């Protein structure tokens, strides 16, 4: 129902929402293995999944209000090449996706209910069937 791009942006939103639970954190590197998502987070423009990019920037504003001296760097990390931190995140993401537990109450509001089905994912699924 969703694209890899959307998953990466949702992961970035989740990462931002978890930062306040880490005491005394001042510097964060948010590593993504999707360069399109990195570009979109740095320079949002009108595009599919725009609502997720807006949600990321809303979460970032809330975070910066809570921790004004925080520095955040968003950068690329290699995906699927035995990079242990990325492999661990992938494992945890797959576990969470397969888990049917109710959402954690401290999730950003947008993520407390299912996201709308992606038009891009629906088109790709249709093309794969035809």
From TrEMBL:
Superkingdom field: Eukaryota
Residue ranges of every copy of the RNase H type-1 domain listed in the record: 1-98
GO molecular function, one term: nucleic acid binding
Protein's recorded name: RNase H type-1 domain-containing protein
CDD domains, per database record: Rnase_HI_RT_non_LTR
InterPro entries assigned to the protein according to its UniProt record, in alphabetical order: RNaseH-like_sf (IPR012337), RNaseH_domain (IPR002156), RNaseH_sf (IPR036397)
């Amino acid at each position: 129902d969703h694209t890899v791009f959307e998953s990466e942006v949702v992961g970035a939103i989740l990462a931002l929402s978890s930062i306040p639970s880490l005491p005394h954190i001042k510097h964060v590197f948010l590593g993504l293995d999707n360069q399109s998502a990195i570009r979109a987070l740095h320079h949002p423009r009108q595009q599919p999944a725009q609502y997720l990019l807006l949600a990321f920037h809303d979460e970032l504003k809330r975070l910066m209000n809570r921790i004004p001296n925080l520095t955040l760097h968003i950068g690329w990390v290699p995906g699927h090449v035995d990079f242990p931190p990325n492999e661990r995140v992938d494992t945890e993401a797959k576990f969470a996706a397969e888990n049917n537990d109710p959402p954690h109450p401290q999730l950003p509001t947008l993520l407390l209910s299912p996201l709308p089905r992606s038009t891009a994912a629906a088109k790709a699924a249709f093309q794969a069937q035809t």
